[in-house]
């Protein structure tokens, strides 16, 4: 009775995608005061830029901008029905740039192009590489990113193929020259009082990207410099991660459908990786209180799944820094999320790899120390 | 010390109601951006009319209207303290008509009249039939509906009575001539891009009401026409159904009070049936993307209770359709909700009756195919 | 690498505090429509003053004021990182006065002074007494309160000290002369219709403070006058209490960190006492429908912890009353919260002490009976 839609009801599978194919994702989304309050309640974020109108205005913003990760999750959620409805796992992100502040009342929509396709040796799945762009109601691009995601084939192929089309090497870092601060942005006079933090851009001793890239991803004490071990832990429950993911209109089945997931190897629902990113960033407030905004996500990886009942912890390593102008500096941070092990305890020295859930390498804007 | 209120603290019981009695329910409610965001987070709804201000305006609305079911739940919630505080079960709804769009900032209040009373043979309960009307701050009626609900007697009667007062036959369907579209309503030029759906009013092959009414309610393959089997499932948790029901200021004890319910035959809290309606309708987005609004609920029945941990699925059968004007058509849909069985799996052919949770027969407005 | 902040990442411990020390707490907070909707969803509050714009205006308010307890929780949450991050337990509140209505769009910040310090005999903890003041964006004080909280020492002392500095006797009640009604406040003509309550200030037979203070806090039938036994119960789940507490940006670890708490004597997360206050007050709506606002919290005590899965019940005892003006009276209420025992059942007569979770003695404004 129902004629074939542009999108099958069961979603696209790997073999449906074509290099260069473009998607105008459905359901543009006006961001409201309600979304912003829910984001606070779901993450415990305390960044004053996103919850104090007077503070935002004292920095030069016309009004309180929306948290960068809330923008990311809403923009990302739009892509899920077309790109990752039948995903096995989100493998990574790169070259993610926040180009414009987003304000309450703005309406976001997202477009995606298939930029790479690679068959997996199993014949059952493949990896889809996409570039997604998010626009506001004035058609200004506010956010762009690359991600690659493992997607089921509808029908396995045997023998497996080894096709790899259009794959590009994602840059390890968004280039410093691509990081700009809004022209209006000036640190407030009372920064430390408002944020509770006394550390400014000058106070973070960053290693440099070359050395950092040589260090192994795991193992004891991999870094030359001491990471900031954020003090708190946050336990995730089923209802809060599903509320967050529904708010973002992200429809990936693995987060919502226990009837499906109870027969998976996890036997339960998976927490949306973006919720893990948001919780870890909220935990990273203590020690990084003067961060103003995210300019770029250089790379992101979900190492292990997170489930309801897990308690998340986070450490941050400053990796690189450079000045933007006389008032603002850029700081590249490597945020690592763990579950069920507190970085401030002795046990952390031998933290097993399966407790590492997230690596998020991102670049923030931070005020320079007031003269 | 406390003098008798108009309403007893323990709520009304069946023997307190009188035919023709009228209630002005307490707590008028201004709908805010926060309610709208919470509704998205609680249901995962993706209808762009209710989350995109520019899309709403492109259809002719002055601003984004509030989701019809959110309006229904808030209007309904007001009636609970006076009508169904001591309810055993909500038996059904009929003749529910959405008369005006409701916007953020509008304030709703509800009035109810007792239109029928019937004793049950147990002597312990009775069925109360009511007509409820919901008004906005300009005293314009925005919504009206009939429902019947089984309510406990405070004191059982023995022998039982067989009184039946004022019962009316609820119409099986809101008459087509009562279904009107707002004068301003025009389909947007970019409907398919915004909604992600390519099916318009012309693309649904409806059976007709007479044939439909002859088919049995249960059993394998009851319908002549193929239903739309919506692809996704949504698991309900305790905190999300209780958050929804508190948001609607619905006070029915069965949803909130585990101390009470642990000694019931269910041994746990019941999910508010309206939350089940909202989840099933959100699941029904895929396959019905171009639905604009609900004009009427013809009938509604909760077949079995839903509990936290259950995963809901939905199918929709187009039942009847007729044109409203050159741009808009009416489509009557029969939405059936199931728990813990996926309509897209083979097991569904033998779905046992106790997994069917909802039948919601409703009429929507849908754009006709652009010429 | 990180220089010492004004605040250690692990928070302050008892030995860090000095008498007279002042804190300007971080993260000013603009209250939005989203916060207000979330508060309804999290508590089930039905006070029409906080959810009906026309009703608020009919009382003389320029717009809908924010629920007093939502203001309290947000103001209180700001103090947690500096005062009670390493708290064992919140012991009590006193002299809490609501000085100005707070409206959507207002921005709150909080300051605190250490007004007393007392070592505990264990040598492992001490009690910190503070006065906190909350200001809006015009630097008008909107709320002030005293609390005392037991805080861990970072390093235990042996032998223990018996220092007690600057302790004051908190007043048992905010003095009647300190209770004022806003000059604009007039009861609405349709109060009973809007609130659903027919009882006005004249209808509550209060005992008096002297007699009340002589009655024991526990034991069967301690009071001379009958309390109002509110009819409903509300079960708390993990996700709703943590959502509430994150919304208030309260960072106390005991509410969020299951990894930490699983090794505590409770073996699970504790519900924020303020959430218990809000739930009990929402339950107290039935029987106190015409309460307009909270003018003062005279004292508050959390007798026992509350956990997810507990069902809360409440009773209220009117303690004292006096007229404010020809339209408005003051009513002092003693609200007692219980878990897992319904005051409307016979079992309540022998309610064991460990089921009592809250005593909140507060003073409200209530309209006098319309002539």
Structure characterization notes:
Three copies of one chain form a homotrimer. Chain A is α+β, with helices and mostly antiparallel strands and 371 residues long. Chain A has two domains: 13-31 and 66-170, Thiol Ester Dehydrase, Chain A; 188-371, Hotdog Thioesterase (Thiol Ester Dehydrase, Chain A). Chain A is 19% helix and 29% strand. Chain A has eight helices and 13 strands. In chain A, strands 1, 2, 3, 4, 5, 6, 7, 8, 9, 10, 11, 12 and 13 form a 13-stranded antiparallel β-sheet that branches. In chain A, β11 (311-323) and β12 form a beta hairpin. In chain A, α1 (33-43) packs antiparallel against α6 (238-247). Chain A is globular. The termini of chain A are far apart. Mean pLDDT of chain A is 92; it is low at 1-5 and 215-224. Chains in contact: A-B, A-C, B-C. At the A-B interface, β2, α1, α6 and α7 of A face α1, α2, α4, β8 and β9 of B.
